[in-house]
Amino acid sequence: MGQMLNFDNVELFYDHVYALKGVSIDLNEGETVALIGANGAGKSSILRAITGLRKIKSGRIDFMGERLDGTAPADIVRKGIAMVPEGRRVFPFMSVKDNLLMGAFTRSDKADIARTLDSILTRFPRLKERYNQQAGTLSGGEQQMMVIGRALMAKPRLLLLDEPSLGIAPKLVQDIARAIVAISRDEKVSVLLVEQNSRMALSISNRAYALSTGSVVLSGESKALMNDDRIKAAYLGGE
Ligand code: ATP
């Protein structure tokens, strides 16, 4: 299992807000890695640094052995990194079909795009049923499935998920968790999962990093972290 993504001592600022204070994380091919932590811990900033939406101040980011920071966002997608943003960000007046096709904007082989689309509709039959429906009329859970599908349309090697369980009915959180596990297994895609639902995140990831105010405070195998008293107290409601 080779290393896929490496963060070495990354610092990131928003004006005067010191959002990432020298963060080092890594992710290997085939792994699902979770980032957990409270509001404002810096989880989304890590994703913004990877996708190139925000420049880092110092440190470096490598992907598949090549330097990633400084690369333009569209080229980052071409390198095989696709993002499922927080809050779902659908194009509400476009159909499910057109939302999904937007995800393939870096690809040109029509037959190959059609194959990917087919596999996504097979995975998410709900989207097939609602294929021509305006995306804004989908339920929250359906929209989440759709934006995961949209990211998969880029045929990524690394999928970034920003709080997929946010605002989703508890029953559907299970479905989304199962979908993430199935996708990583079937599509051979690695996953970096940002979640405030630490229990869900730890239950479906291989390893995790706990963040607090811009620093990694704990990391390790997810199974071990789930039984760690510090994690239980701070992230699992003290159970
Ligand atoms: P959440 O779960 O609430 O999204 P997070 O762990 O993802 O939290 P970040 O969004 O990475 O946290 O934010 C890290 C810090 O940077 C916070 O203190 C936040 O207020 C600050 N921050 C984020 N975006 C901006 C911005 N555009 N301008 C100024 N400060 C920002």
Dominant shape = globular
Taking the sheet with the most strands, its summary is: 6 strands, mixed
Number of helices: 10
- The low-confidence parts are none
Sheet with the most strands: spatial strand order: 6-7-8-3-9-10
| Overall helicity | 25-40%
Terminal-residue CA separation: 34 Å
- Percentage of β-strand residues: 25-35%
Which whole number gives the mean pLDDT? 93
Q: SS-based structural class?
A: alpha/beta
Keywords: Amino-acid transport, ATP-binding, Nucleotide-binding, Transport
Family: Belongs to the ABC transporter superfamily.
Organism: Paragemmobacter amnigenus
Protein name: ABC transporter ATP-binding protein
Describe this structure in words.
The protein has 239 residues and is α/β, with parallel strands linked by helices. It contains ten helices and ten strands. The strands form two sheets. A six-stranded mixed sheet has the order 6-7-8-3-9-10, with helices on both faces. A four-stranded antiparallel sheet has the order 2-1-4-5, with helices on one face. A hairpin with a 2-residue loop joins strand 4 and strand 5. Helix 3 runs parallel beside helix 6. The longest helix has 17 residues. It is globular and about 45 Å long. It starts with a strand and ends with a helix. The site of adenosine-5'-triphosphate has 12 residues, from strand 2 and helix 1.
